[in-house]
Amino acid sequence: MLLVEEFLPGREFTVGIIGNTDLEVMPIKETKFPKDGAQILTNELKMDATSLSEIPANIPNDLAEEMKEMAEKTYRILRCRDFARIDFRLDKKGQPNVIELNTFPGLEEGFSFFPLIAEAAGYSYNELLNRLIEVTAEPKGYQ
User: Fold this and answer.
1) Is 5 a member of any domain?
2) DSSP string of 48-60?
3) pTM score, two decimals?
4) 31 is a domain residue
5) Contact 51/41 with Cβ under 8 angstroms?
6) d(CA 125, CA 43)
7) pLDDT tens across 88-132, in order?
């Protein structure tokens, strides 16, 4: 089997969501790539910490709202529970495209994207873990 996808040359973003019936969409993170390197997030870039994060992303409000709405819709359509991370890439026209949904994103303190985004939303690491424990006990209803 072969999967071929069009390369999206634009900026890359990540949105974190917590919740079931009521969703909390957290601040948008942008991954900044080195100008002279690969413009995709490889394991080497992530492990070497040469990619930079900007949270919240410096983007126009209308783009931020569009990505947050798309993230929430994607989360609901795929019937996600508790928490997830949704990644976006802009196409050559600057339109956001969902490139990945991770239903169990990394939670390594100070390293993984989800805790970094949660910190920007005002959560300490312990508060984030407690919130995730709380949300697992919530009803799993969908609207």
Assistant:
1) no
2) HT-SEEESS----
3) 0.88
4) yes
5) yes
6) 23
7) 999 999 999 999 999 999 999 988 999 999 999 999 999 999 999
